[in-house]
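Field log, afternoon session.

UNIT: design team B
ACTIVITY: writing a sequence onto a fixed backbone
BACKBONE:
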């Protein structure tokens, strides 16, 4: 079966979509830790607390069950995001992975990256937007 490669050359990514994609790319290597920390927050706390709870101070309703349910939803969302980004990462070319890691994880400048890659400035500025468009597509960020 032939491999179909999507072309992201002329894809127009809106500013808000680009910003969200860049945020996801910057946090990619932290997602596993975030998920694990959220899982630790699910454990109910059985310690005595003599301070008034939020519901006692404001007459609002707040329960441990709701808190745990909200955290479980967050874990599901982060797990889905990590899966989407993992799938994309594993399918990227070495050049796109290098750009992702150097620019969005390590924070290197664009100039440093294209010089390290040994590619022209023009090629770099063609490939970087393609990478961002791939993240937008993988995470279904269109129209946010």
């Amino acid at each position: 079966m032939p491999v179909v490669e999507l072309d992201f050359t002329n894809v127009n990514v809106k500013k808000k979509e680009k910003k969200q994609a860049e945020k996801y790319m910057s946090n990619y290597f932290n997602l596993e830790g975030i998920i694990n920390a959220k899982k630790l927050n699910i454990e109910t706390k059985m310690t005595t607390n003599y301070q008034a709870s939020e519901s006692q101070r404001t007459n609002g309703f707040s329960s441990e069950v709701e808190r745990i349910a909200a955290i479980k939803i967050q874990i599901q969302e982060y797990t889905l995001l990590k899966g989407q980004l993992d799938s994309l990462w594993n399918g990227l070319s070495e050049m796109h992975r290098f750009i992702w890691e150097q620019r969005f994880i390590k924070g290197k400048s664009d100039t440093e990256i294209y010089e390290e890659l040994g590619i022209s400035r023009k090629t770099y500025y063609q490939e970087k937007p393609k990478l961002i468009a791939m993240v937008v597509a993988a995470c279904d960020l269109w129209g946010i």
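LOG NOTE: Residues 1-5 have pLDDT under 50 and may be disordered.
NEXT ACTIVITY: expression trials, pending approval
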